[in-house]
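Folding Task

Wanted — backbone structure
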Amino acid sequence: MKKTILLSLTIVGLGLVNWIAAYLFSISFVDISIPFGVAAVFITYIFTNKAGTLSRQLDTQIQGQTGIRMDITKRVSSTSFVFLGSIVYFSITLIITFITYKDYFI
């Protein structure tokens, strides 16, 4: 239940931020949704990947400051529901954009 709520909140939150950005820049919601979705997927991947570069860089930085060598264990990469929510949001906006501009694609 908690995972479903987190997934739903991610999709709604991204939609809300996308709507606010579209309103502030006077751009159509549909026109800005695909670049916003791609950026959301990229940013959430960087910050939620436990075995990613950002996490390893932080470990290396801590080792450099303390001088204590930490045992590095191989981390299992697990997919975050925030990341999955951003992928679902991107997919939904891709479908909506295709439906809206179907005359241009066909």
Q: What stands out?
A: Residues 2-105 form one domain. The radius of gyration is 18 Å. Residues 33 and 83 are 17 Å apart (CA to CA). The chain has one domain: 2-105.
